[in-house]
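Narrative of accomplishments. A recurring question from our advisory board has been how the design workflow behaves on a single, concrete structure rather than in aggregate. To address it, we present the structure tokens for one chain from the evaluation set, followed by the sequence designed for it. No filtering or post-editing was applied between the two.
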């Protein structure tokens, strides 16, 4: 159990940014995403991914959460190992709790979002569409009379366009996506089959751990030989919605929100108490909100993996620089 004192002490040592220009004595092109900073080694066909403690919500970075990067990276490592028999993934090695060295791939221009429940708080969520009267979502027919957080008749794939940094992703149907000409039908179908198989495996494992994997998103890329490879992360609290299974039905009956393990907690704080859903600069998260979010991230790691999370409390920039030879 990580104490409150450790969490509060780490508030001053979160990994917000990476200052380096070279890795192992070589200057490499870099790309900074909302959460991950990537250094691309084209000669070796590798990508060094540093998972920061930044938190993204409503398509914006809203602050940092203690140990979040370590949790995400190590959860991704767990799931990549756990699902490598289903689909190849990009993981090569993990030289630091916040770092993954991965095979460089050409990313598909689509996120593959799998959903099993009628839920969400963002303006583009399936629940908001249903609440507004829509009875189809991304080409899937939805039954009348459903309640928020109710299970869908079957899991559905709802693709999303990958927006440029600072823009918003857009959910589309398969037909709409293909009409845009962004991806070949054969490639999409292969990726969709992988997403469905991964989601089924993820839900089965989560159920054994007393959890519900309500929805998730996958990113995939093409290797040089045309193989579709799972990239980025998989089944982490940033890309997935986890609920506790033991009281889900009781809370649904009372129209209460499920107990969640994911960053939905922060989304609810932003949209509720802070009254912010993405317009203008984000509010400053109080220490107690940041620490509670950290507890939930850590709990997700321990519940999903069955392992005890062992945080590295050393100053992250110097520690990672030493592991990578970064300057």
């Amino acid at each position: 159990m990580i104490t409150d004192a450790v969490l509060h002490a780490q508030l001053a040592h979160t990994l917000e940014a990476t200052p380096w220009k070279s890795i192992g004595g070589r200057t490499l092109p870099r790309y900074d995403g909302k959460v991950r900073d990537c250094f691309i080694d084209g000669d070796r066909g590798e990508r060094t991914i540093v998972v920061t403690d930044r938190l993204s919500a409503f398509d914006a970075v809203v602050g940092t959460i203690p140990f979040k990067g370590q949790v995400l990276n190590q959860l991704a490592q767990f799931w990549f190992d756990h699902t490598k028999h289903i689909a190849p993934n990009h993981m090569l090695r993990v030289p630091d709790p916040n770092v993954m060295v991965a095979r460089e791939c050409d990313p598909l221009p689509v996120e593959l979002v799998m959903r099993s429940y009628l839920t969400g708080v963002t303006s583009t969520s399936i629940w908001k569409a249903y609440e507004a009267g829509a009875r189809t979502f991304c080409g899937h027919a939805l039954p009348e009379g459903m309640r928020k957080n109710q299970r869908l008749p079957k899991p559905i794939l709802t693709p999303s366009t990958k927006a440029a940094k600072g823009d918003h992703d857009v959910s589309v149907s398969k037909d709409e996506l293909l009409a845009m000409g962004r991806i070949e039908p054969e490639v999409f179908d292969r990726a969709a089959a992988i997403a469905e198989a991964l989601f089924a495996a993820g839900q089965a494992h989560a159920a054994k751990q007393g959890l519900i994997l309500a929805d998730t998103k996958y990113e995939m890329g093409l290797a040089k030989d045309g193989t579709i490879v799972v990239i980025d992360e998989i089944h982490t609290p940033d890309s997935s919605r986890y609920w506790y299974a033991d009281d889900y039905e009781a809370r649904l009956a009372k129209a209460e929100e499920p107990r969640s393990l994911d960053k939905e907690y922060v989304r609810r704080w932003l949209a509720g108490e802070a009254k912010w859903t993405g317009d203008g600069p984000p509010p400053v998260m109080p220490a107690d909100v940041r620490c509670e979010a950290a507890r939930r991230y850590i709990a997700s790691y321990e519940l999903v993996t069955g392992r005890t999370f062992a945080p590295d409390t050393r100053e992250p920039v110097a520690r990672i620089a030493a592991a990578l030879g970064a300057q």
